[in-house]
Write a structure and sequence with these properties.
InterPro entries: His_Pase_superF_clade-1, His_PPase_superfam, PG/BPGM_mutase_AS, Phosphogly_mut1. This protein is an alpha/beta fold. It is built from 7 helices and 6 strands. Helices cover about 40% and strands about 15% of the residues.
Length: about 210
């Protein structure tokens, strides 16, 4: 009777390091990101958690984070679903730009609104609300049923796609979710009740 759901934001990527808007662009992990992913796996192993399946996004940094965790926990044969619905928020015209350059081009206030508002998308991109609209239906149809079958499920994804899940799991609101930050490579362990509400939450910090 586990009903365990573990969320992990991918380790530091090459574009995180360069302070670039990433979104659906596909840089790999840095050496720090690899270390973060391995450390996440080690902390999960220390908790004695054995997974039944895993879900990850369609992007390399999340997939590689998952693979490194699998190595550390000794479950390289874990069934994995790779799904674009779990991708990071699409940053549109901002993707690939340095965040400081974007502020110079559009102004500090406008870039802050694009980054931190709930429902204002950057040009050609998605708002957090748009991201929630694609992540939550996938969670309800595919991830949650596995958890409610009393399986242990691991999800490696991105800051914004995981914030979409925290919106529901933590009972947050459109006003409070934009201020929530997820650390890279830091597992969040939820145990769910049979009605899908949260029984407990534990963050496995470094």
């Amino acid at each position: 009777m586990s009903r365990l759901l573990v969320l992990v934001r991918h380790g530091q990527s090459e574009w995180n390091l360069k302070n670039l808007f990433t979104g659906w662009k596909d840089p790999d992990l840095t050496e720090v990101g690899v270390s973060e992913a391995r450390a996440a796996g080690q902390r999960l192993k220390a908790e004695g958690i054995h997974f039944n399946r895993a879900f990850t996004s369609g992007l390399t940094r999340a997939q590689r984070t998952l693979a490194l965790i699998q190595e550390e926990i000794g479950q390289t044969d874990l069934p994995v679903v790779r799904e674009q619905a779990l991708n990071e928020r699409h940053y549109g015209d901002l993707a690939g730009l340095n965040k400081d350059d974007a502020r110079q081009r559009w102004g500090e206030e406008q870039v802050h609104i694009w980054r931190r508002s709930y429902d204002v998308p950057p040009p050609g991109g998605e708002s957090l609300k748009d991201t929630v609209a694609r992540v939550l239906p996938y969670y309800v149809r595919n991830i949650l049923p596995a958890v409610l079958r009393e399986e242990s499920v691991l999800v490696t994804a991105h800051g914004n796609s995981l914030r979409a899940l925290l919106l529901v799991l933590d009972g947050l609101t459109p006003e409070t979710i934009p201020g929530v930050e997820l650390a890279t490579g830091e597992p969040i362990v939820y145990r769910l009740n049979a009605d899908s509400t949260v029984a407990s939450k534990k963050i496995l910090s470094a």
